């Protein structure tokens, strides 16, 4: 089940309402947002501009050591027409560098290599000459039917971390790599499961200066009135999150299962994730920013340390983006937001 196809179906039936739980947002919270430019609404004190116009279906961002923005597209037809593009500077055209890909949903630079996760696994590209990559290697090949390869992040210990969805809405996966957060060395060796039982771990981001990994999680879609909101959670090594039996309900099915840090909107198709630690000003502070594809919102989960754990208070952060997916913190004080439907890339920074 490919993520873009799944969220397209969700859009028709999305329940645009807060999920249950104490950390969800109130519909009235969006009333505090103001016009900040470029057709967006956000917190007072921020300014939004159009960074660039990219191809539609923009699904992942990465930046290199020269400050260039790299992006991947992922349509829901999965016809092998996706690609990786570079935008050399704000306002510049997006230049196609790699073509013929199948739904690349993760993109990250690590050293001199650009890693991209897609339908078949993970590939690495290096030695960019301004037009093409001179070198390409397949880092990781996953079995057929394992599920979609989602976001990528570089762990503090140098390993690459990736989310892999279940290949189904509510079945019990047969592969240990399905419905899991995995990690591996940059050359692809030592693939291991860090945490399992997660239906769809999509966006991944480490809190800067820590080994705390936040992950956005899509919930099952066949639960009717029992459907919880999508989740934002800290994922730690060895955890079992209980998919498909546990979805946050009370009872034996969830005994011993970790709790999410925040509950977001129902059927939101949560996707991209960025952690800010003050670069957007004291009013935003340390927060996890989460793109909700189906609601057209970027949510803010204001984070606070509580011992070894985190607590969060959720409120709308941005509206006016039709289908936000890709998020990236650039230069510490700018948030880049990609609109999957239109290809517009927005820059949000302190006014």
Widest sheet: strand ordering: 12-13-14-15-19
Q: What is the tally of helical segments?
A: 1
Largest sheet: 5 strands, mixed
Please provide the count of β strands.
27
**Category from helices, strands and their pairing:** mainly beta
Given as residue ranges, the uncertain stretches (5+ residues, pLDDT < 50) are 1-27
Relative strand content: over 45%
Average per-residue pLDDT, rounded, comes to 92
Distance between the termini: 41 Å
Instruction: Write down the secondary-structure element order.
Output: HEEEEEEEEEEEEEEEEEEEEEEEEEEE
Helix content: under 10%
Shape type: globular
**Cα-atom radius of gyration:** 19 Å
Structural account:
With 351 residues, the protein is mainly beta. It has one helix at 3-13, and strands at 34-37, 40-42, 46-53, 58-63, 69-73, 82-87, 95-101, 106-110, 113-118, 121-128, 133-141, 149-154, 160-164, 180-184, 192-196, 200-206, 213-218, 229-235, 239-240, 262-266, 270-277, 286-292, 297-306, 309-319, 324-330, 334-339, 344-350. It has a 5-stranded mixed β-sheet, with no helix packed on it. A hairpin with a 2-residue loop joins β8 (106-110) and β9 (113-118).
List the helices and strands and how they pair.
Layout: H1 3-13, E1 34-37, E2 40-42, E3 46-53, E4 58-63, E5 69-73, E6 82-87, E7 95-101, E8 106-110, E9 113-118, E10 121-128, E11 133-141, E12 149-154, E13 160-164, E14 180-184, E15 192-196, E16 200-206, E17 213-218, E18 229-235, E19 239-240, E20 262-266, E21 270-277, E22 286-292, E23 297-306, E24 309-319, E25 324-330, E26 334-339, E27 344-350
């Amino acid at each position: 089940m490919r993520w873009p196809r799944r969220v397209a179906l969700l859009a028709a039936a999305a329940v645009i309402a807060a999920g249950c739980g104490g950390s969800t947002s109130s519909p009235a919270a969006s009333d505090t947002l103001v016009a900040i430019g470029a057709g967006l609404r956000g917190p007072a004190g921020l300014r939004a501009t159009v960074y660039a116009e990219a191809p539609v279906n923009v699904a992942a961002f990465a930046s290199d050591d020269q400050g260039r923005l790299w992006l991947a597209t992922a349509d829901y037809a999965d016809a092998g027409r996706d690609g990786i593009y570079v935008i050399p500077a704000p306002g510049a055209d997006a230049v196609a560098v790699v073509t013929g890909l199948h739904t690349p949903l993760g993109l990250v630079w690590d050293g001199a290599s650009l890693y991209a996760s897609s339908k078949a696994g993970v590939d690495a590209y290096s030695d960019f000459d301004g037009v093409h990559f001179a070198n390409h290697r397949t880092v990781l090949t996953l079995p057929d039917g394992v599920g979609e390869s989602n976001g990528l992040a570089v762990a503090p210990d140098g390993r690459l971390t990736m989310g892999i969805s279940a290949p189904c809405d509510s079945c019990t996966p047969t592969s240990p790599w399905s419905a899991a957060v995995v990690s591996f060395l940059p050359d692809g060796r030592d693939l291991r499961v860090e945490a399992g039982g997660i239906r769809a771990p999509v966006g991944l981001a480490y809190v800067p200066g820590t080994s705390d990994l936040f992950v956005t999680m899509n919930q099952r879609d066949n639960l009717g009135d029992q459907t919880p909101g999508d989740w934002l959670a800290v994922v730690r090594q060895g955890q079992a999150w209980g998919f498909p039996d546990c979805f946050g309900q009370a009872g034996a099915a969830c005994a011993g299962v970790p709790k999410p840090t925040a509950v977001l909107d129902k059927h939101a198709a949560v996707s991209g994730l960025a952690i800010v630690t003050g670069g957007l000003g004291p009013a935003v502070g340390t927060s996890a920013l989460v793109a909700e594809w189906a609601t057209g919102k970027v949510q803010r989960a204001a984070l606070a340390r509580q011992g070894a754990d985190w607590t969060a208070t959720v409120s709308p952060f941005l509206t006016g983006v039709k289908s936000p997916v890709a998020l990236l913190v650039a230069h510490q004080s700018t948030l880049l937001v990609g609109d999957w439907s239109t290809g517009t890339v927005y820059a949000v920074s302190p006014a």
